[in-house]
Design goal:
Order of helices and strands: HEEHEEHEHEHEHHHHHEHEHH
Number of domains: 2
CATH class of the largest domain: Alpha Beta
CATH topology of the largest domain: Rossmann fold
CATH superfamily of the largest domain: Alpha/Beta hydrolase fold, catalytic domain
Strand order of the largest sheet: 1-2-3-5-4-6-7
Largest sheet: 7 strands, mixed
Distance between the termini: 27 Å
Number of strands: 9
Oligomer: single chain
Length: 329
């Protein structure tokens, strides 16, 4: 998927969409749907069985061309927050919304996982890969079956990052509004507040395990251990486990390793000035990896405050980008 092959993957075996509920209120069609995740079709062994089925809810105003997928933030196991924070006001602007239930969340949560605490670091990458395929298919479905041809993806925090990942595999211009996220998650998981939740002692034991090292060495086209030893040679004071995690996270979460979005001028990135969760210092900027995109900085606020107080700003740029995209079509 880092090569932008989601569409090809889906077209090999197009999922069957199942509509489980449909109703109409005030000229808005509300739909509940489900389908087998394309990732589960092609790589069933890496996605937990509980996550094989993708669930979504749509709010479709009649006579609208515009639709946006809202991806869930960390801890968002239902549709409620996104419906209140995004859907209702966007419906007033005649903009449709699709809410996707995250893999590893809600009905898709593995039985032995406690709340939002992913069992493995790699679960984060699997979550992102699944959403890349699912968003791609949902936009295909929205265009073909519902005539929504002005499309976008958005999300907050983790949802913002997965929105960027998903957009990298869409082969036509869409609106993209990643909120409270950045171009790479490596520093956030090794230095930021999030790093405090990671079980470093467990990862240290894994890194010392011969079986773990053999497993990593079987992965083609990687030199992670060589890079780690080179960094430790230059700076022996580095923490071996954290530095390996930094290399590992950079490999899978750096947006520069994925295809650039088709039309960056329809991308608006919204970040808080004082973010201790999603770190940006000394990381590539969006302007560098996607020239033409723009970054909006929310002054004098941190991650949590930005989330609680700025949904109006998030909605403003979603609406603005979709309107500009519509004019260009």
């Amino acid at each position: 998927m880092s090569k932008g092959l989601c569409t090809d993957l889906i077209n090999q075996d197009i999922p069957k969409m199942i509509i489980t509920k449909e109703s109409t209120t005030n000229n808005v069609i509300e739909i509940d749907g489900e389908f087998e995740s394309p990732l589960a079709k092609h790589m069933p062994e890496i996605l937990p069985k509980e996550a094989h089925k993708s669930y979504w809810k749509g709010f479709f105003p009649k006579n609208s061309r515009k639709v946006v997928i809202h991806l869930a933030s960390t801890g968002d196991h239902s549709y409620f927050r996104r419906k209140v924070g995004f859907v209702n006001d966007l419906l007033d602007k005649n903009i449709a919304s699709i809410l996707v239930e995250n893999p590893f969340y809600g009905r898709r949560k593995p039985k032995n996982q406690f709340r939002s605490s992913l069992l493995n670091v790699t679960d984060l990458f699997v979550l992102g890969a699944a959403l890349m395929t699912e968003c791609n298919y949902l936009l295909m479905y929205a265009k073909k079956e519902c005539s929504f041809d002005v499309q976008g993806i958005s999300g907050v925090s983790m949802g913002g990052f997965t929105a960027s990942l998903a957009a990298s595999n869409i082969r036509y211009p869409i609106s993209l509004v990643p909120c409270l996220s950045w171009t790479c998650a490596s520093k956030s998981y090794t230095q930021g507040v999030i790093s405090e939740a990671i079980k470093w002692d467990v990862l240290k034991k894994e890194l010392e395990s011969k079986q773990f090292r053999k497993g990593i060495e079987l992965i083609p086209n990687q030199n992670w251990f060589e890079e780690l030893e080179e960094k430790l040679k230059k700076n022996p004071n580095l923490d071996r486990t954290r530095e390996f995690m930094n290399i590992f996270m950079r490999e899978f979460t750096y947006l520069g390793n994925y295809p650039p979005i088709v039309e960056p001028k329809f991308c608006s990135v919204i970040v808080p000035q004082l973010d201790s969760y999603v770190l940006r210092e000394n990381l590539p900027t969006f302007e560098e990896i996607w020239p033409g995109s723009k970054v909006i900085i929310l002054p004098e606020c941190g991650h949590v405050e930005a989330y609680l107080a700025n949904h109006n700003v998030f909605r403003k740029y979603i609406e603005e980008n979709l309107n500009n995209l519509e004019k260009s079509l």
